[in-house]
């Protein structure tokens, strides 16, 4: 059971409107094919080895082993509310959290749930905007990553929060087009009703291991699930969970005025400096020593060796959330690092995925 929250909602001051051992001995079973050799062994210190084995043939039916998740998946609720019968909550608060000079607007909003939407950190909800589409049909739902911990911003498990970027763009005809749902949400006034579906999603659930290293890589509103993680880790007290590992957040935004939840994260760092590392990548205002744009992967490259050492641990869990294109840049830096150890990153990442250590939700 969860208990008290030790921090009030703190929004930025911008104008509101199995444990395998480490490096030397890690040996994972990579790929075992009974009818054809080769059999690969991944040994982190020596790289890939090709080993010949004799094929084994058995006539017994294979035992079905139920997969036990390393993430906080037990008892999880999905799709309690569906589009035909959504939960109707109310907007309790809606605040712009980007500065006036930021490119684009991002809003933080809190909805009442009366405890009816039992979500976990890392899940998403669906929102159905009021009104109808061009065919006179109700709008389709849009998904949004939940930006609060399971306890919610008020600590009573009766709210859910989102972090939403207002989508506005100019189409081929030169017309300004406003995204349906993001504009509906960013314009919501306190007291207004909002149709909610879900909760959904298991990819971004936190690891069970309270001693895990959790590396969070977010761009823009991709910060949402990580705010939930970090509140649970650093702002709340839980009888059954005390975070004792290392949390490392990398957040990429275009300008300093677009940094999301900066004050909250800095407070966490002040509270637990030994357990929390925080790095921003401000793409339009910072560059690296080569003068290249500071993207999240550019910032990560500055800690490349350290990150690679962490990625080699069996209790490191990596989470990526935000822009679709961001994973490629991260792959690029990891490819060269892994190669130094004679490891092929694509294969290594596949194994991390299998172990639920590489978790991606991008759009
Ligand atoms: C799992 C998941 C989690 C998500 N979490 C979040 C979140 O936490 N916060 C958040 O803000 N969003 C999040 N999104 C995105 C969100 O679901 C919506 O897609 C987004 O808000 C846009 O919806 P809309 O109704 O405002 O726009 P729509 O009316 O659906 O219009 C969007 C469409 O407009 C077009 N378009 C958009 N920009 C341009 C452009 N520059 N040029 C040309 N065409 C363009 C594209 O076709 C795009 O599909 C998430 C998506 C997923 C899948
Ligand atoms: N779970 C999900 O799937 C989920 C959750 C939340 C949000 N989202 C999506 O994530 C996106 C976030 O958008 P946003 O508007 O909130 O972000 P934003 O404020 O525009 O910030 C995005 C940052 O990423 C940088 N960037 C652009 N291309 C990149 C690349 N290839 N690699 C690394 N960084 C890159 C941008 O730099 P420049 O602009 O300077 O090039 C900017 O600094 C949206 O598409 C949103 O729908 C998805």
From TrEMBL:
Tagged with keyword Ubl conjugation: no
Catalytic activity: 2 reduced [2Fe-2S]-[ferredoxin] + NADP(+) + H(+) = 2 oxidized [2Fe-2S]-[ferredoxin] + NADPH
Cell compartment(s), UniProt: Plastid, Chloroplast
Annotated Low complexity bias: 9-21
EC class of the enzyme, as a word: oxidoreductase
Cellular component, GO, one term: chloroplast
Family stated for the protein in its record: Belongs to the ferredoxin--NADP reductase type 1 family.
Protein name per its UniProtKB record: Ferredoxin--NADP reductase, chloroplastic
Species: Cuscuta campestris
């Amino acid at each position: 059971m969860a208990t008290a929250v030790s921090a009030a909602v703190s929004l930025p001051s911008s104008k509101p409107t199995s444990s395998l051992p480490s490096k030397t001995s890690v040996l994972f079973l990579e790929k075992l094919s009974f009818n054809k050799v080769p059999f690969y062994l991944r040994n982190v210190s020596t790289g890939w080895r090709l080993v010949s084995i004799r094929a084994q043939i058995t006539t017994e039916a294979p035992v079905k082993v139920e997969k036990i998740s390393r993430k906080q998946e037990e008892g999880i609720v999905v799709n309690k509310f569906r589009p035909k019968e959504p939960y109707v909550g109310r907007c309790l608060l809606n605040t712009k959290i980007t500065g006036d000079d930021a490119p684009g607007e991002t809003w933080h909003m809190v909805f009442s749930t009366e405890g009816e939407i039992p979500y976990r950190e890392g899940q998403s909800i669906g929102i159905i905007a009021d009104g109808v589409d061009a065919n006179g049909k109700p709008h389709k739902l849009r998904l949004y990553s939940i930006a609060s911990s399971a306890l919610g911003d008020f600590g009573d498990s009766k709210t859910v929060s989102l972090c939403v970027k207002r989508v506005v763009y100019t189409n081929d005809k030169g017309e300004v087009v406003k995204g349906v749902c993001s504009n509906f949400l960013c314009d919501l006034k306190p007291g207004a009703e909002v149709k909610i579906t879900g909760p959904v999603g298991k990819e971004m659930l936190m690891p069970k291991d309270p001693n895990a290293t959790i590396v969070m890589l977010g761009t823009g509103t991709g910060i949402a699930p990580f705010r939930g993680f970090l509140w649970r880790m650093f702002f709340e007290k839980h009888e059954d969970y005390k975070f004792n590992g290392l949390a490392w957040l990398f957040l990429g935004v275009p300008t300093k005025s677009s940094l999301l939840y900066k004050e909250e994260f800095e407070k966490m760092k002040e509270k637990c400096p030994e357990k929390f590392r925080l790095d921003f990548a401000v793409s339009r205002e910072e560059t690296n020593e080569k003068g290249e744009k500071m993207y999240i992967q550019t910032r990560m490259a500055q800690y490349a060796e350290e990150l690679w050492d962490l990625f080699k641990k069996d209790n490191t869990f990596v989470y990526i959330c935000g822009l679709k294109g961001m994973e490629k840049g991260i792959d690029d830096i990891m490819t060269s690092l892994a190669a130094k150890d004679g490891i092929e990153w694509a294969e290594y990442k596949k194994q991390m995925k299998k172990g639920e250590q590489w978790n991606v939700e991008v759009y």
